[in-house]
Amino acid sequence: MYPESLGPMIFTFTGAGNVSQGAQGVFKELPHEYVSPLDLQNVVETGDCHKVYATVVDKADHLYRLAGGDYDDEEFEKFPDRYDSIFADKVSLIQLYSTSNTPSNYPS
Questions:
Q1: Which of 18, 24, 94, 98 could bond 108 through an S-S bridge, CB–CB 3.0 to 4.6 Å?
Q2: pLDDT at 37
Q3: Other CB atoms within 10 Å distance of the CB of residue 58
Q4: How far is the CA of 40 from the CAs of 12, 15, 71, 78, 89, in angstroms?
Q5: CA 104 distance to own-chain centroid
Q6: Which of 51, 65, 64 has its CA nearest to residue 91?
Q7: Could you tell me the strand order of the sheet in which 52-57 lies?
Q8: What is the DSSP-derived secondary structure letter of residue 22?
Q9: Could you state, in order of their start, the residue ranges of all structural domains in the chain?
Q10: What is residue 5's three-state secondary structure?
Q11: C-alpha angle 32/2/20, rounded to 5°?
């Protein structure tokens, strides 16, 4: 039995390649719910500990253009230095373990 004190179990799949698709195929055999990367904090706080959650993160979810404007995949491929990632700040699994009832060594 998964201890409720740990909060809900959340998997993050990055991209849509073969590895991600294969891992999601196994994941889908579990009682699960997919959520938006933007909803992860809500799941951490109020999620059901009797099922597992997943989110799929693509480049547009965690890369932002330093000069402003929307993410552009073609531009990113040619000029990656024009972009920075917010993955560690907004999506990272490390931060998801930092719930109000669990001590953490990581800033949240």
A1: 98
A2: 85
A3: 15
A4: 10, 17, 21, 31, 12
A5: 18
A6: 64
A7: 9-14, 52-57, 32-34
A8: H
A9: 4-96
A10: helix
A11: 40
Residue 95 has a pLDDT of 43
Which stretches of the chain score pLDDT less than 50?
94-108
> Who contacts 36 (Cβ-Cβ below 8 Å, separation ≥6)?
55
Provide the pLDDT for residue 28: 92
3-class DSSP assignment, residue 57 = strand
Residue 107, amino acid: P
Residue located via tokens 């201890």: 3
**SS3 call for 21:** helix
Which residue's structure tokens are 């998964």? 2
What tokens were used for 73?
A: 């995949």
The CA-based diameter of the chain, rounded to the nearest angstrom, is: 48
